[in-house]
């Protein structure tokens, strides 16, 4: 008799994986805006045991800061498991989690991932802009770190950001117990505080999967962000990626 995990992310519905769990695998791809070959951004993602895709656009810097004023704010994307027909649905949101106002701008996505195809595709529309995403198995000299647990992730992580004119740095602190804190750039009020509090756990850590939840503390409340994460290792070192709802997406590297 095959055993299944009963516990899910704290605060979310408990969903059992299928009898034959999906192989956890990393994927990469591209997002093209308005069918313009000059408006293409790279995309990185993972598929979990339930067959859900979690991913984000990389852009030049991992995430834009609250001061971002550019014309291109990148997206996080997550989907439900692919249907037997090959149809796939989900959600794409612009990465606005850093904003004090808690803006959550997104759109439903739809596409296909046939069972006999190595990759799939999605499309969505935000305002007057149309986006198309296509992905295939990753081939980027990076390897998924598995097994992984909160203890292995414990430490201080640098989160590169970008303001309107200069580069910025936020910090992600993870304790061995799983408690986690995000300290934003010095101009983020109040300076030096834990601006996002939460937990990082790995109930599916043997497969390299991470669960997380972050919320603003009481003095700056907001709906919590929940999602999946993974850790990779490659020629340029470790990279931690977290993708969740509410436009939450970050990439972090161990403190130099």
Describe the structure.
By secondary structure, the chain is mostly beta strands. The chain has two domains: about 25-135, Porin (Beta Barrel); about 145-255, Beta Barrel (Lipocalin), CATH 2.40.128. Helix content is about 0%, strand content about 45%. It has one helix and 17 strands. The strands form two sheets. It has an eight-stranded antiparallel barrel with strand order 1-2-3-4-5-6-7-8. A hairpin with a 4-residue loop joins strand 10 (about 155-160) and strand 11 (about 165-175). The termini are far apart.
CATH topology of the largest domain: Porin
Q: Tell me the number of helical segments per DSSP (H or I, 4 or more residues long).
A: 1
Shape: globular
Radius of gyration over all CA atoms, rounded:
18 Å
Question: What strand order characterises the main sheet?
Answer: 1-2-3-4-5-6-7-8
What amount of the residues lies in strands? over 45%
Q: Residue-averaged pLDDT, rounded?
A: 85
User: So, CATH architecture of the largest domain?
Assistant: Beta Barrel
Query: Could you tell me the number of beta strands?
Result: 17
What is the end-to-end distance?
46 Å
Q: What is the element string, with H for helices and E for strands?
A: EEEEEEEEEHEEEEEEEE
């Amino acid at each position: 008799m095959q055993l299944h995990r009963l516990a899910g992310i704290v605060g979310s519905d408990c969903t059992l994986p299928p009898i034959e769990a999906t192989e956890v695998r990393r994927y990469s791809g591209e997002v093209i805006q308005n069918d313009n070959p000059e408006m293409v951004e790279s995309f990185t993602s993972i598929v979990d045991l339930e067959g859900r895709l979690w991913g984000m656009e990389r852009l030049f810097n991992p995430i834009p800061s609250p001061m971002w004023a550019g014309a291109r704010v990148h997206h996080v994307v997550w989907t439900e498991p692919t249907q037997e027909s090959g149809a796939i649905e989900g959600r794409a949101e612009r990465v606005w989690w850093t904003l004090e106002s808690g803006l959550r701008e997104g759109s439903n996505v739809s596409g296909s991932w046939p069972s006999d195809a190595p990759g799939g595709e999605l499309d969505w529309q935000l305002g007057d802009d149309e986006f198309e995403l296509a992905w295939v198995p990753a081939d980027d000299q990076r390897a998924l770190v598995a097994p992984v647990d909160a203890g292995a992730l414990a430490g201080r992580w640098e989160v590169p950001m970008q303001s309107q004119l200069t580069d910025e740095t936020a910090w992600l602190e993870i304790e061995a117990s799983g408690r986690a804190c995000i300290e934003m750039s010095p101009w983020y009020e109040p300076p030096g505080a834990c601006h996002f509090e939460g937990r990082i756990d790995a109930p599916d850590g043997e497969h390299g999967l991470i669960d997380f939840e972050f919320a603003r503390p009481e003095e700056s409340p907001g709906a919590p962000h929940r999602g999946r994460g993974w850790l990779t290792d490659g020629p340029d070192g470790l990279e931690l990626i977290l993708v969740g709802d509410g436009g939450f997406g970050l990439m972090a590297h161990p403190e130099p």
